[in-house]
Amino acid sequence: MVSEQNDSPVPEPHGATRADRRLQFPEGPAVDPAGSHHERRIRSFRPRRGRVTSGQGDALRRLWPKWGLDIDGRSVLDLDEMFGGRPVVLEIGFGMGEATAQMAAADPDTGILAVDVHTPGQGNLLALAEREGLDNVRVANGDAIILLREMIAPGGLDGLRIFFPDPWHKKRHHKRRLVQPEFVELAASRLRPGALVHCATDWEPYAEQMLEVLTASPDLENTRPDGGYTPRPDFRPLTKFETAGLGKGHTVHDLVFRRR
Length: 260
What we know:
This protein is of the alpha/beta class and 260 residues long. It has helices at 18-24, 54-67, 79-83, 98-106, 119-132, 144-151, 181-189, 204-216, 240-247, and strands at 68-70, 88-92, 111-116, 137-141, 157-163, 191-201, 220-222, 253-259. Helix 7 links the parallel strand 5 and strand 6. Pfam families: Methyltransf_4.
């Protein structure tokens, strides 16, 4: 158990760089874990280091060696060993980790491999996991594409969750959206038959793209008989981000597909 987090920011030198941040957490998440040994391509995410509170920094220093991993693309993960034989769900993009921790607490028999590049969120989720006694959460740092392609065995996952990914609003940036045909093909190859793909977004054009791309995949089938969106399942918590969006009049769309 951890004491209540101190939310004051960790002091940083004026003009601190990402390399300086790495020096703050020498055993924590790497700045560029895959380095130069994987090809450069269009990324679906923005690097987000952010300001780390003292509580988050403490969690990163103490817990990263135990529950964290850098996506370096150099070896295939032994998920059975990592999660004690539990079925494993991959969550891409967890923000500050509150919803992830709630889902992990509600379903302790399922392992959650949670991926993000936001340093404060990584520290926050680690702190939440320790505070709540959650041993079924692991935090991964880096590019989810490299994780899926290089570090997850075919059929190794029991589910995939993508909640509120960056919608890349401008048309010229749509190519950066994560849910594209190539991504879905890769992700489906890492899912066992019957595994669920669950996406959620409050950006209507992206919801329409998700529905089109997922429906077109020969490896997936919509769990909705009418082929449309799914009401928010009870197991997906209502997040602060989602609540704020609803307050602004946004409509949230959930999509749940099953691996054939």
